[in-house]
Amino acid sequence: MGAEPYTSTRIVLKRRPRGAPRPEDFAREEVTLDPPGEGEVLVETLWLSIDPYMRGRLSEAPSYTEPVRLGEPIHGECVGRVLCSRDPRFVPGDLVIGMGGWQSRFVLPGARLRKVDPDLAPPSAWLGVFGMPGLTAYAALEGIARPEQGETVVVPAAAGAVGSVAGQLAKRKGCRVVGIAGGRDKCRFVTETLGFDACIDRHEADLQARLRAACPSGIDVYLELVGGDVLWAVLPLLNLHARMPVVGGIAWYNLSSLPEGPDRTPLLLRTVLIRRLRLEGMIVWDFESLRPAFEAEMSKQLAQGTIRFREQVYEGLAEAPRALIELLEGRTFGKVLVRVHA
Amino acid sequence: MGAEPYTSTRIVLKRRPRGAPRPEDFAREEVTLDPPGEGEVLVETLWLSIDPYMRGRLSEAPSYTEPVRLGEPIHGECVGRVLCSRDPRFVPGDLVIGMGGWQSRFVLPGARLRKVDPDLAPPSAWLGVFGMPGLTAYAALEGIARPEQGETVVVPAAAGAVGSVAGQLAKRKGCRVVGIAGGRDKCRFVTETLGFDACIDRHEADLQARLRAACPSGIDVYLELVGGDVLWAVLPLLNLHARMPVVGGIAWYNLSSLPEGPDRTPLLLRTVLIRRLRLEGMIVWDFESLRPAFEAEMSKQLAQGTIRFREQVYEGLAEAPRALIELLEGRTFGKVLVRVHA
Question: ipTM of this model?
Answer without folding.
Answer: 0.93
